[in-house]
Design goal:
320 residues; alpha+beta; amino-acid biosynthesis; Phosphorylase Kinase, domain 1; Aminoglycoside 3'-phosphotransferase, Chain: A, domain 2; two-stranded antiparallel sheet; globular; Pseudomonas-type_ThrB
Length: 320
């Protein structure tokens, strides 16, 4: 989230006049991030976030609006979009698609506490129970089909050993998931790293940045969370955080037998998903703007650790 399209106070004040949110008091550009222009907007009534969409598939924005509004209606801590007086959320500003959100409280947890992990696991479990009934559909843009099609583009930039590692892994995933029964499906966040959450102490202020949101295997979402929230710097799993998140999650949504069977492979596949996507950003498809990309090595390390040490045992499901 950075400022690629500057806006004047007058432009934003005129934009806000379509909504019942009060009058502009202050406008602040938000630094950091990778894809969109973001401002913090203060009115005489509330704190808001204004996002302009700089790239990506704009025709998919209605899906994100519908998903956020659906989760917000079900009392999940997400920024449901602000609709104008005619009930419309998606607008155009400075010739870019624009959405207005409530500003949620909190900061990104750098080193999550045990309670923050419990709350995150519980909330993700709640979200997945609700999201199984979400009527929208957007195929997972980073699933096994994408890995199969795209990993060839990165091979030339890898050592011989890493080429073999990546090709062997994709072949294994094809064998495992090609023959597995369909896993439980629903709407996913798709990128639920620590920096897409906001905490005030141990209270979850919100889950943000749903622009990788899609529909697909719920287990994919959970594996992304574990690989970020419950991994030590050297790539190995942190047993305490792992157990806390998975116990809290399963009190809301116990994993099926099919999910439990493929869990170690799903952890590996989601690690490779980020290793590959970060390689592609550096070598094949750099962002339109001059930003520092994430380091692919982090997820190569995680993948190697999952291969060497496996997954920790899954806690048994227990109901609240």
């Amino acid at each position: 989230m950075a400022v690629f399209t500057p806006l004047s106070d007058a432009q934003v004040a005129e934009f806000l006049s379509r909504f019942d949110v009060g009058s502009l008091v202050a406008l602040e550009g938000v630094a950091g991030g990778t894809e969109n222009t973001t401002f913090f907007v203060t009115t005489d009534r509330r704190e808001l976030v204004l996002t302009l969409f700089e790239q990506g598939e704009h025709e998919e924005l209605p899906f994100f609006v519908e998903l956020l509004d659906y989760l917000d209606e079900h009392r999940l801590p997400v920024p449901g979009t602000v609709h104008d007086r005619d009930g419309i959320a998606l607008h155009s500003l400075a010739d870019k698609p624009a959405l207005l959100f409530p500003r949620l409280p909190g900061r990104h947890p750098l080193s999550p506490s045990a309670e923050q992990c419990r709350v995150l696991g519980d909330t993700l479990g709640r979200m997945h129970v609700v999201s199984q009934h979400f009527p929208g559909h957007r195929p997972n843009p980073r699933d096994l089909n994408w890995l199969t099609a795209m990993h060839h583009k990165a091979l030339v930039y890898l050592s011989a050993d890493d080429q073999t590692l990546m090709k062997d892994e994709v072949e294994i995933y094809q064998g495992v998931f090609g023959d597995a029964p369909e896993l439980p499906q629903g709407a996913l966040h798709g990128d639920l790293f620590r920096d897409n959450t906001l905490f005030e102490g141990d209270r979850l202020g919100g889950i943000i940045d749903f622009y990788n949101g899609c529909t697909g295997d719920l287990l994919f979402d959970l594996a992304i969370v574990i690989n970020d929230w419950a991994t030590e710097p050297g790539g190995r799993l942190d047993s305490e955080r792992y157990d806390i998140i998975l116990n809290a999650y399963q009190r809301r949504r116990p994993l099926s037998e099919a999910e439990r069977k493929v869990w170690p492979i799903m952890l590996r596949m989601t690690a490779l998903r980020y290793w590959l996507s970060r390689l592609l950003v550096i070598y094949v498809d750099p962002p339109a703007h001059d930003l520092t990309p994430h380091d692919p090595e982090q997820f190569r390390t995680i993948l190697k650790a999952r291969l060497e040490h496996g997954a920790l045992p899954l806690p048994e499901a227990s109901h609240a």
